[in-house]
Design goal:
This protein is α/β, with parallel strands linked by helices and 940 residues long. The protein has 3 domains: 384 residues, Type I PLP-dependent aspartate aminotransferase-like (Major domain) (Aspartate Aminotransferase, domain 2); 203 residues, Type I PLP-dependent aspartate aminotransferase-like (Major domain) (Aspartate Aminotransferase, domain 2, 3-Layer(aba) Sandwich); 151 residues, Aspartate Aminotransferase, domain 1 (Alpha-Beta Complex). The strands form 6 sheets. It has a 7-stranded mixed β-sheet. The protein has a 7-stranded mixed β-sheet with strand order 16-22-21-20-19-17-18, sandwiched between helices. The termini are far apart. Bound molecules: pyridoxal-5'-phosphate. Keywords: Oxidoreductase, Pyridoxal phosphate. This is Glycine dehydrogenase (decarboxylating).
């Protein structure tokens, strides 16, 4: 491999660095290291079939050719996907800006104030528009948000309530398809009917879902249906178009308990289906039931307002048997885009865009009517449904011939959706296709009684950044207070924060990819299909499976899809009774949550003292559930960061008992090129393309969680939500290929790395973790190691004894690391009181050393507390992180110096300054505020 290969840029260490690191680890070579730490039994003998690596330039040229075989046309198909102008200042300032896209989920709130503010803006937009006070940030897509609303309604229902969830017949078809997938395993009885007629409603029901406006474009007053549902003790959810809500009465105002939807049309390209931020808002009394994350306002150690994730105890939503939702990675970057769009346009701008959209639709409706065409309904926001008996296909074909996609509803009906980008010329073409004449401008056709009367987005943030200079600076100010990979390493165990190379990122905004509607006719999307087919093939190859679906839009959704595949296969074999899912105690929270959502019973398997699956306990649990065993769900290498020797034996035991093996592939960065889960005994896995395959974490999403299966499970992969006949399992996301719009990133990664590159990357990641373990072992015990004393691609530093002796907690160390210029490792997962470090292959030796030296210096600070030099409450550890305001303030009465506070050993002048001190989480939860606070809160 020449020195200028992409892999030599992606892998941070040089050959000389690796030699020095091997010496520190006590291994003669990379091969020897891998032989020593990875059990021979799991090593794959077959090499990867990936094509050999090409350069950045060549890979982009190849992808360019694929992109050019797409033919993006204007799409007026609608159905939850609309044309939108991404403001250039936001595309460049957010979507293409590593300060935004390389950040992690804001668990370390002190170094995440920028994206937390953007997400608070998002929540404020949603709360304002939906008329419900508590909005989260964010959900995966509209359809899965509707499924979450269904589950929320069921949790809120009284015990023994009915199993019936009523869905209005006007909901989007993909939403209904996902609801069916999610309802079935939980025994929820979906009743689809016209909710406009109360006589259609069953006597008992626990919830109801309405669409506003409906798929037929109609804007209905749902007050009576809502009242009828409430009389039956049911909760009402409304799936609402976010742009329509700018003009329409808020659903919360006339009775909705939950509102869900998509924010795609607020500036996010269609991207062949995603990623787009889904949203959900709820009434006050349901706030603790909200799935996903909620940003809230609290205060820091000096009493200043500070943001953080609120009600974190709610991460119980991904907690074992009591799980209520499995959402972990969500859609933070698209949510930031949507919020920024609202900040940029402000209330008047949004109103102008919404009015303009509605006027274009009304004008189109009037034009068609004027030409004698039957147009359904007398109200509409953006969608016009026209009856052309026997001629729908001709109309759609004529429009397509001139460059516009319309929606064929059936042989007699055509629907046309207008949006922000629709021009007068577009309207003329559409009229031509219908053989109609475009009439003059018309007022929007919104019923007076359903017009919004209250002001929206009254908070000053929505009227302060309307010049491009102001907007550019606002986005920069937010990005500047955040810590992303563009500042330094983010050694989060289990999260694989590796390089997101610019050459991988660039193609996501190429218009040939970004501007394609997911339901565009096949002949326009050849490039997309080719890219997806190639990528699915490569992924299947590298993990040793027969088939892959990229549909799941997060790891959690891949887990659900995988478990549903197992169940469907077993059911087809006459073993539908199998419903027990064995999960080791160390598992990631999403595993158990997904099992619960798949209707399985979770049985926890203990881990032994070495952190491995306890084989005796496994035997006992298998025996106790012999006839009902559905699956074992296990992470490999384990979440303890060790290649368990026994994995092949474990898989054998489960298979012998008639169960299937699910290997959680989130740790694939420790296997790629060396071992394939599909070959060492697993039947199904999900992969996290936002971990191993370089999709950036985006501050908490988007991600892609493909599900990969062995031959026998291939017929049970998630199906196309728009298919006439549902597949065996049904869809888990609303778009057939989920978050297709970011698949260019893993495609570029694999194309530029090739088989040798990914194999070298894995070994470099394992070497880096072992190097850190070796350097830090004396300061902090490494909790688990394999038989050779080696770890896999991450290592757990055990602080429990230190904490017990000195009172210094993992949180203190995490916050003190901020003063040293680092993002903390993963705190207290999978073992409370520990830090899990995953350096990845992308960090260079200087950065690894800087981290080790910071950790060693912190150990010395802990020892000072231990020696009684100063009490922990007065130490720099407990009072960390230190803001510039505190350090440069006129008062200084601490037991350590200002220099020690802000300039501990190794910190350079390019130091990262946290904008706030340690945040008081409990105070914020007691005084919950999750929309933009009034300005006087900042002066008080
Ligand atoms: C990240 C992770 C998941 C969940 O993936 P999401 O994309 O966040 O839903 C599951 N298991 C493990 C071990 C993980 O590290």
């Amino acid at each position: 491999m020449s020195d200028r290969s992409f892999s030599s840029r992606h892998i941070g260490t040089s050959a000389a660095d690796r030699d020095a690191m091997l010496k520190a680890v006590g291994q003669p070579s990379i091969e020897a290291l891998m032989d020593a730490c990875m059990p021979a039994l799991i090593r794959s003998s077959d090499s990867l079939a990936l094509p050999a690596a090409v350069s950045e330039t060549e890979a982009q040229a190849e992808l360019r050719a694929i992109a050019e075989s797409n033919r993006p046309m204007r799409s007026m198909i609608g159905l939850g996907y609309h044309g939108t102008h991404t403001p250039a200042v936001i595309r460049r300032g957010v979507l293409e800006n590593p300060s935004w896209y390389t950040a992690y989920t804001p668990y370390q709130a002190e170094i995440s104030q920028g994206r937390l503010e953007a997400l608070l803006n998002f929540q404020t937009v949603i709360a304002d528009l939906t008329g419900l006070p508590v909005a989260g940030a964010s959900l995966l897509d509209e359809a899965s948000a509707a499924a979450e609303a269904m589950l929320l309604a069921r949790r809120a229902a009284s015990r023994g309530a009915s199993d019936v969830f009523v869905v209005d017949s006007r909901v989007l078809p993909q939403t209904l398809a996902v609801l069916r997938t999610r309802a079935e395993p939980l025994g929820i009885d979906l009743v689809v009917t016209d909710c406009g007629d109360e006589t259609n409603l069953p006597e008992s029901m626990f919830g109801m879902l309405l669409q506003y406006p409906g798929v037929d474009g109609a804007i209905l007053d749902w007050s009576e249906a809502m009242a009828a549902a409430h009389e039956r003790g049911a909760k009402v959810a409304v799936a609402a178009d976010v742009l329509a809500l700018v003009l329409l009465r808020a659903p919360g105002e006339f009775g909705a308990d939950i509102v869900v939807g998509s924010t795609q049309r607020l500036g996010m390209p269609m991207g062949f289906g995603g990623p787009h931020a889904g949203y959900m808002s709820v009434r006050e009394e349901l706030k603790r039931q909200l799935p996903g994350r909620l940003v809230g306002v609290s205060r820091d150690s000096s009493g200043a307002p500070a943001l953080r994730l609120a009600l974190q105890a709610r991460e119980q939503h991904i907690r074992r048997e009591r799980a209520t939702s499995n959402i972990c990675t969500a859609q933070v970057l698209p949510a930031v885009m949507a919020a920024s769009y609202a900040v940029w346009h402000g209330p008047e701008g949004l109103r102008r865009i919404a009015e303009d959209t509605a006027e274009k639709a009304a004008r189109l409706a009037a034009s068609l009517r004027g030409s004698g065409i039957d147009v359904a309904g007398d109200s509409c926001f953006d969608t016009v449904v026209a009856r052309m008996p026997g001629h729908a296909d001709t109309v759609v074909a004529e429009a397509a011939a001139i460059g516009i996609n319309l929606r064929r509803v059936d042989a007699d009906t055509v629907a046309v959706a207008c949006d922000e980008t629709t021009t007068e010329a577009d309207l003329r073409i559409v009229c031509d296709a219908f053989g109609a004449r475009l009439a003059g401008a018309t007022a929007a056709a919104i019923p007076v009684s359903l017009r919004r009367e209250d002001a929206i987005l009254t908070h000053p943030v929505f009227s302060s950044h309307h010049s491009e200079t102001a907007m550019m600076r606002y986005l920069k100010r937010l990005a500047d207070v955040d810590y992303g990979l563009d500042r330094g390493m983010i050694p989060l165990g289990s999260c694989t924060m590796k390089l997101n190379a610019a050459a991988e990122m660039e193609p996501i905004t190429w218009p040939e990819f970004a501007d394609v509607h997911p339901l565009a006719p096949r002949e326009q999307t050849a490039g997309w299909r080719r890219l997806i087919e190639q990528l699915e093939g490569w992924l299947a190859d590298v993990c040793g499976y027969a088939a892959v679906s990229v549909q799941p839009n997060a790891g959690s959704q891949g887990e659900l899809a995988g478990l549903l595949a197992i169940q469907a296969w077993q059911s087809d074999r006459g073993e539908a009774g199998r419903d027990v899912c064995l999960i080791p105690a160390s598992a990631h929270g999403t595993n158990a949550a997904s099992a619960v959502l798949a209707g399985m019973r979770v049985v926890v398997v203990a881990c032994d003292e070495a952190g491995n699956v306890d084989l005796a306990d496994l035997d006992a649990k298998i025996a106790a559930n012999a006839d009902s065993l559905a699956a074992l769900m296990v992470t490999y290498p384990s979440t303890h960061g060790v290649y368990e020797e026994s994995i092949v034996e474990v898989c054998g035991k489960v298979h012998d008992a008639g169960g299937q093996v699910y290997v959680d592939g989130a740790n694939l960065n420790a296997l790629l090129g060396w071992a394939k889960p599909g070959r060492f005994g697993a039947d199904v896995s999900h992969l996290n393309l936002h971990k191993t395959f370089c999709i950036p974490h985006g501050g908490g999403g988007p991600g892609v969680g493909p599900v990969a299966v062995a031959e026998h499970l291939a017929p049970y992969l998630p199906s196309d939500p728009m298919a006439e006949a549902p597949g065996a399992v049904g869809p888990v996301s609303q778009a057939r290929w989920g978050s297709a719009g970011i698949l260019q990133i893993p495609w570029m990664y694999l194309r530029m790395m090739g088989p040798d590159g990914v194999t070298a990357a894995t070994a470099s990641a394992v070497l880096a973790a072992n190097y850190i373990a070796a350097r830090l072992r004396e300061s902090y015990p490494v909790l688990y190691a394999g038989e050779q004393g080696l770890v896999a691609h991450e290592c757990i530093l055990d602080l429990r004894e230190l904490t017990q002796r000195t009172g210094v907690t993992v949180e203190d160390v995490a916050k003190r690391l901020i003063d040293y210029g680092f993002h903390a490792p993963t705190m207290s997962f999978p073992v409370a009181g520990t830090l899990m470090v995953e350096p990845t292959e992308s960090e260079d030796l200087a950065e690894l050393d800087r981290f080790c030296e910071a950790m060693i210096a912190i150990r010395a600070e802990i020892d000072q507390v231990g020696a009684g030099v100063l009490p922990v409450e007065e130490s720099a550890l407990r009072l960390a992180p230190h803001t510039a305001a505190v350090v440069t303030g006129d008062e200084w009465d601490r037991a350590y110096s200002r220099t020690e506070a802000a300039w501990p050993a190794g910190v350079s002048t390019a130091k990262y300054w946290p904008p706030v001190g340690r945040i008081d989480n409990a105070w914020g939860d007691r005084n919950l505020a999750c929309t933009c606070p009034p300005l006087d809160a900042y002066t008080g």
